[in-house]
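> call design_seq(struct)
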């Protein structure tokens, strides 16, 4: 059983909190401290963004984070090194890499999967890999015991959802809004209706992300989802608190976790 599956089994129906940060923002050492702060504050799984020069699915907050990381010279190799260092003292909290296909493709799927597994990564989500062409990456990841995490959008049809259900591992990430990260406001009734449809096809836990910005919205989503994914709000906190990023993010994550546990 993968570390992600073990985490959901341990939760036994309680809702998971999955915070996102961009690796290397504002620098690799701070990212390592942030990962430990997230775990200590109650994060069940950590999503670690791989910075990319053309982050088309991301809004301005995460775009700026990627720019700050790239300015530090952060690469896919750097990201894996951060995970390796995290694993030196945390063997339990799953880490999912989230990013774009280009850096993975350049590395080579087999080489990437081997290096990611060796570093202690648990799952990989490439936001621009369509289901029709993901098989080579999926197969390479599976050979090394890594879960392939898929996005499902409000517009995803049932046939595609069924195909995703065949290949997905760990959990499925439901994008609750059309648009880029950090945009608009949530319609929780609409999200709940879509999750009911998804569960006809998908037996894995379903996490919901995009548009969750505070304890109140996290609590509403937790009532319907298996996991609550929070990205832009956390990255904003990092940006707004230079020099005390870990303390600020830890406080926010504790607040979110408390709200989710109340469901």
């Amino acid at each position: 059983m993968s570390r992600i599956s073990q985490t959901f089994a341990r939760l036994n129906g309680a809702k998971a909190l999955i915070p996102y940060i961009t690796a290397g923002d504002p620098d690799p050492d701070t990212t390592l401290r942030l990962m430990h702060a997230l775990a200590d504050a109650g994060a069940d799984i950590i999503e670690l963004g791989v910075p990319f020069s053309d982050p088309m699915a991301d809004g301005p907050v995460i775009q700026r984070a990627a720019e700050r990381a790239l300015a530090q010279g952060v690469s896919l190799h750097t990201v894996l090194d951060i995970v390796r260092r995290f694993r030196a003292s945390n063997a339990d909290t799953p880490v999912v890499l989230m990013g774009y296909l280009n850096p993975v493709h350049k590395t080579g799927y087999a080489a990437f999967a081997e290096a990611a597994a060796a570093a202690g990564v648990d799952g990989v989500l490439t936001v621009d890999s369509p289901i029709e062409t993901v098989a080579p990456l999926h197969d390479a990841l599976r050979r090394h015991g890594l879960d392939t995490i898929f996005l499902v959008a409000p517009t995803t049809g049932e046939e595609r959802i069924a195909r995703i259900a065949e290949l997905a591992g760990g959990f499925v990430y439901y994008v609750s809004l059309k648009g880029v990260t950090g945009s608009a406001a949530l319609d929780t009734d609409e999200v709940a209706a879509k999750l009911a449809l998804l569960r006809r096809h998908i037996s894995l836990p379903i996490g919901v992300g995009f548009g969750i910005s505070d304890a109140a919205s996290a609590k509403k989503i937790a009532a319907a989802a298996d996991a609550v994914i929070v990205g832009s709000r956390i990255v904003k906190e990092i940006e707004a608190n230079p020099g005390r990023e870990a303390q600020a993010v830890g406080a926010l994550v504790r607040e979110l976790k408390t709200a989710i546990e109340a469901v």
